[in-house]
Amino acid sequence: MKKTKIAELFKRNIDRPINGVVKADQMDDESVWQELDEFVVTQELDRHLRKFFETYCESIDSPNDPNISGKIGVWVSGFFGSGKSHFIKVLSHLLDNEEHAHQGQTKRAVDFFDDKIADATILGDIKRAVTSDTDVILFNIDSKADSSSGRDAILAVFLKVLNEKLGYSPDHAHIAHMERYLDEKGKFEEFQETYHELTDTQWKDERDAYEFNRDEVIEALSKTLGQSEESCARWVDTGENNFSLTIENFSKWTREYLDKRGPKHRVIFLVDEVGQFIGSDTALMLNLQTITEQLGTVCQGRAWVVVTSQEDIDAVLGEMTTSKENDFSKIQGRFKTRLSLSSANVDEVIQERLLRKYDSVVPNLVQLYTEKGDILKNQLSFREVGTTYKQFKEADDFVQTYPFAPYQFKLLQRIFESIRKAGATGLHLAQGERSLLDAFQHAANTVADQNVGVLVPVYMFYPSIESFLDTTVKRTIDHAKENDSLEPFDIHVLQVLFLIRYVDEMKGNVDNLVTLCLDEIDADRLALKRKIEESLTRLERDSLVNRSGDLYYFLTNEERDINQEIKKEITSSADEAKLLGDIIFQDILKDQRKHRYAATKKDIPFNRVCDHHPVGRNTEGAMTLSLISPLDDDFEQSSDQKCILNSSADEGQAIVRLDDEKALGRELRTYLRTEKYIRTKDDSTSPPTTRRIHKDLATENQQRRTLLANMLSDMLVDASYFVAGEKLEINANAPITAMEEALEYLVENTFTKLSYLKHLNDNPNKEIHAILKSDDTTQQALQMALPENNPQALDEVRSYLNLASKRDREIILYDTCFGRFSDRPYGWPEQETALLLTRLYASGEILFMRGGDAIKHDDLYSALSESKNWRKITIVQKVTAKVEDVKKAREIGKEVFHQMGPETEEGLFDFLRSKLSEQQASLKRYAEFASSGDYPGEQTINDCLATIKPLLAVEESNKFLERFNETKSSLLELSDDFHDLEHFYESQKPTWEKLLKAEQRFSLNQSQLRQDDEARRALDRIQAIRKAANPYGMVHEVDPLVSTIEKVNDKLIAEQRSRSLQQIDAQIGAIQQELEAVSGDSTLSSSCLRPLESLKTQVTGQNSLAHITQAEADAISLKDSAISKIGQFVAQREAAKATQVAEKEQAGGDSEDDIPKFKPPRVIHPKALVSKTYIEDMDDVEQFLKAMRTQLETAISNNERIEIR
């Protein structure tokens, strides 16, 4: 087996010409034959062909199905070099199905697939599809595009290739439009012949230069169409400007062409690299969407669009501006069929086209793998890669892939993609003019003459892309080859580092470089590793590579110059200490500034120091965590003994001494120098390549910072810890855990009074609320000594308050909790200190003040519950009341409230305040009634409230009791007044309200009532009670007085109501007589009687004597009104009857005189006939009688009835 050459393994000649990149316009027989013959139908392509032809055949089987128009778009995606172009070109060959010849053989395109596709169903669909009448238009859109087309670039290309297919001018759309018009008129051939006669040249050869043959074109058009030359000249001169290219027109012209060829004719546009052409241009994407949509709708599924893109459609849309995403909501619907070519497809193609072995060598290769398989697994391993690279799975895998390693398929794809995206290549590679197939063929040819047992190292792929690299990259490697200080193998290592430079997941550590450089199955990895390390040393020395930790990076010439400038940057020890502190305390320890002590759950601040430089702002009085690194100038002198001694200073501190690590200083200084260089040299005016290098350096430096953080994390775990005069044995797996253990020990050994808090509350705020809610001051005082209330801590706080008070110092709550008892040696949680102070308040020892006044008890919890309020709250020790004041206040309280209060100062204080508060609440309620003017005691209530208010404003018990005693006389008066007020408003108020209602009711008939002696006396007494300032003792008289008046009032009302109703009934009777006399109808009767009936109802419900009496006069008035209505009724009836009589007499008939007569009444008021108050003599009598006679005679003469009133 050892004598077998690599070239002898392959079934196909390894050095035969292979068109590595399939081009749409390369249609020579040799290329087409190879493209069809060597097309590998992988499992993936088998699925894609099935999907495409199933969909395509649907349009053939259901030509009138409207759903087909939405399925004519096909999107073929795949990474760079995945075979997209080859796939759609083979589709074009199949759908064309032309005959192709090669070395005497002739085949149609579909015949090549008889041996490639085993599934008869798929093959049947393909053969059925290729027999349909189809025009195939295959093109690379970039090569066909006109740079001046702008937003309509895609549409312009589609029209161009359609015109070209139809034989029209491809480069001048308006000329093609003219040709289309001539063709529709059946004049195109005639025009070409006429043009040939005039110019002796062929029109299609000369049409691109039509402007130079303007006159001949005009003349040929004129003769062909029979139009004037002026008209044709106008069209030729303005045709280009007047030509309108729209998607609707393009779709219409396509449909017209299809209809011309027959109802079953189809056209398919296969567009290569449309995704790259569109890029992130939203206008072009919308252009493509609309073209596809319109073609589907207008051509009803007979025009198809197949496009390729390096990204799938979702990724293309994802790169569009978010604000435009709604514009592309339909595009995915336009391309229902999506075919994605993956890396597995490329592996299979390369294995089939290049690496397929002779059957005769397979057993030997299987034997080789059986012997060396385990070795290969170790040889081809990687370390710290961001993805999984394949190994040989089994012997068959080895046979198919050898002499390459499985990982190289995926890695080379990533190399091609990353180099292209990073801009390290020229235009050709970026446009896809090199393929993976080329690279593998070139590498295979490199080892073709070597014996089996070799492996292809990655650097052998470098030559396949060398000629397409950017000059800055190629020059770097070329110059390295000319460097006498370097060895040939160094160049290979440099090439490998370049190839993986932009592949993020492939790290450039030595172990990975060994795997990438393996050139034999049996290679000695250790020897190769030493060889590579030596090469890296030389390359780094010449600044051809850069090192970051254990990773190496390729440097171009410009990167090398920049790297040398970076090395010249100067850094100080202060810069190093600052960076070291930032990485340790910010990156690793997450900027932790406080340590939560486990026993109390209190966050205790600590100052941070790195190599004698503070990190961040220091807190006065806080404990210190100091770090000593190998970069510190005094690191060599930092012995255990010295660290122990220093950890005892300043009330104790924690010192962390890192172990020595040479790489730390190198990486830290490189980071600082790089950061400083980028900060000072990077600006927008730098060339693009320089800005790219600066960006890469920044990224690399960020990775270096991560490396430093990882390195320092390990060093912190392994460091020596010295705390409060002791060297600790810390066994932690993480730096944060180690730091917390050291700080925990520091707290326990420097906060000596922390143990005073024997009991910690789970919720101090809740406990504060419970204490303040309790009213039993005595009980609170008794509980102070209980262990769970931390009596030792209470004594400590009490002592501090006593001392501060004696020195007349202001005691601020915030400073007490967050300062005094939070710092060493206490370290108490702030809320616990607040709870202790609350206990002292509850036992009557202190007061909380704000703005010079004691905080009211009811407001105290809200003030204490949030620490943001504490800066405005001060604490004062409470002054105890004198014993005699307590005793006196207790006695006064008994007199005032008729109840003896507690003996203690606080108890009595709470008792008296509670009683006063209760009375105040009642008085305020009484005041609301009294203020209306209808209830008594308004002034008394105000006087009582004025006595209570200033007392309740006193918050300090001693001052309250003093004021209470001083106000004795007012309080006793208050007691009497409150008793009367309380009895009235709680018991007598309903009776008083009865009085108010009676007074209002009797006021209607007061003058008549006063004519009765008994009623008059009762009314006078009620008014006296009502006006009394203190009527409380007279309220019991109200009920009998009201009853007395009620009897008289009811009697008067009943008598007057009876008289008035009789008068009303008399008027009703008179009206009824009049109605009978004139035979009045029901309407008249209702109109006359209804007002009087209503008046009777009012009198029945009326309680006012005046109103009842007035009803009699109202009845007479209503009767007069009724008589007037009756008179009007009779007059109208008589007039109508008279008209009837006159008509009968005129006709010669007998007249009937039976109309009832109605005498209208006249009311005479005798009093109105006398001009004097009295009739005194006969003359006055005669004058009166004369006037009366005149009135009577006048009425009689007028046929009126007389009523004397």
From TrEMBL:
This protein's source sits in the domain of life called Bacteria
Q: Where is the Probable ATP-binding protein BrxC 4th six-stranded beta-sheet domain?
A: 572-746
One matching Pfam family is KAP_NTPase
Domain Probable ATP-binding protein BrxC alpha-helical as annotated: residue spans: 886-1005
Outline the extent of the KAP NTPase domain.
55-274
Q: Which residues form the Probable ATP-binding protein BrxC winged helix-turn-helix domain?
A: 753-878
> Looking at the record, which segments are called Disordered?
1140-1160
- Enumerate the NCBIfam families for this protein: BREX_BrxC
Q: What is this protein called?
A: BREX system P-loop protein BrxC
Q: What is the lineage of its organism?
A: Bacteria, Pseudomonadati, Planctomycetota, Planctomycetia, Pirellulales
